[in-house]
Amino acid sequence: MITDDSMDAVFHALAHTTRRAMLDYLRATPGLPVGKLANHFDVSRIAVMNHLTVLEKAGLVISEKDGRTRRLYLNAMPIQDIHERWTDTYSAHWADRVNIIKHAAEAAARKMEERDDDD
Predict the structure, then answer these.
(1) Per-residue confidence band for 117, with pLDDT thresholds at 50, 70 and 90
(2) CATH number of the domain at 4-78, please?
């Protein structure tokens, strides 16, 4: 069960754009070395390490040593725990469907805007 303190840590970690981007990279490339992750950002390596510390304390990133390399992995369970706190199986199903409809409508609106801009 997720505690209030652990939820606060997750929300704090997700509140920063750079940390969310880091999680996106780790989702796309599990086991990404710290150095390669740092190359995606225009900040110092110390800033990257500080962000990673916040993500690890929130339980969103797991790291493992591979020789001299530190490999990073996304741990989505804290986010899943928060999601499950406020949804049940039934509502999660319908929330997913509404989300699909929302994204389809937004994509259709973008296409219409692009066509209008071309005219």
Answers:
(1) confident
(2) 1.10.10.10
